[in-house]
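Render this sequence as a predicted structure.
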Amino acid sequence: MASVQVTNQLTTTDKDIPTPRPNDGSARTRAKDYLLEVELVNQPISIDVFKDLSTSFDPYVQVFQVPKGSRGANVADGALLLAQVDDGGIGVNSKIPSSGVQYSNGAGPTLTSLPGVDYVVRVTSLDTLTQLPQPFTLQVSTPSGSVALKDPITGANFNAGGSSGVPVARFFDKTAGGHFYTTDRIEKSDRLTNPSRFQSEGDEFTAPGDGNAKVQRFFNTASGTYFFTNKPGEIQFVRTLPQFRDQGEVFNSYSTAVPGAIPVYRFTNLARERENQQNITHFFTASAEQRRLVQARSDFRDEGVAFYALPPA
């Protein structure tokens, strides 16, 4: 048997949706989506959600069918709803298959993997949640092959602790004299194929798929370097500086030190600014040793923690 299990929780940053309870008016609840990939076709799929026994959370599970390879934060919106189930009021376990499952489009009496499709497993609550966070454990199994629960945005696997992530590569730009950080496959490839200018320094940290704060990237046209921040006040301020070009959100981070996260430190390069006040250049590192080395240099100013991420794989 193939099985995958994650422990996670519904939080205030999760998707805000109407409650699944029929005729519940404008009541809202929270939902967390998992992209489910099943290796083999014609495999019965078993899904269990267990709540924490110390809470009153009433778990509810929905399964949507999407085209294989689908990605996106709203990938399940408008998708075919195959199955859904409450726990019958027991408040402990929502289970597929079970006698309470509502199947649609001929999906029953069991949920079976089909060619050319993936699935989105949505964990939510039958009723409005009066207290958050609400912990739960999700388990998915098939008799043969393999199964994986992935972040619907990045496609990265969730680990047993409910976190997913993509590695953030660091490059030193010998021409601009600054570092570049990216999760983008094409950006990585472009720099790896130009070693005369870009020196690869490996993966610096992991951007968490469940991060609660997006990191914004800005290009400094004066220095040719980049600035990264997840702080709303800084984002608004940098947008007012004429030499910076906003390049949008590039990866996830945490705004606080959640369990398992590590700090990513930020330094300002004072030597570059002495050359030209518009040459605002920063260095980021998740390494405590590198931080100590840079702290010992007079040409850098320690600006503390820029954001939090996951350790490199």
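Summary. The longest helix spans residues 185-192. The two ends are 27 Å apart (CA to CA).
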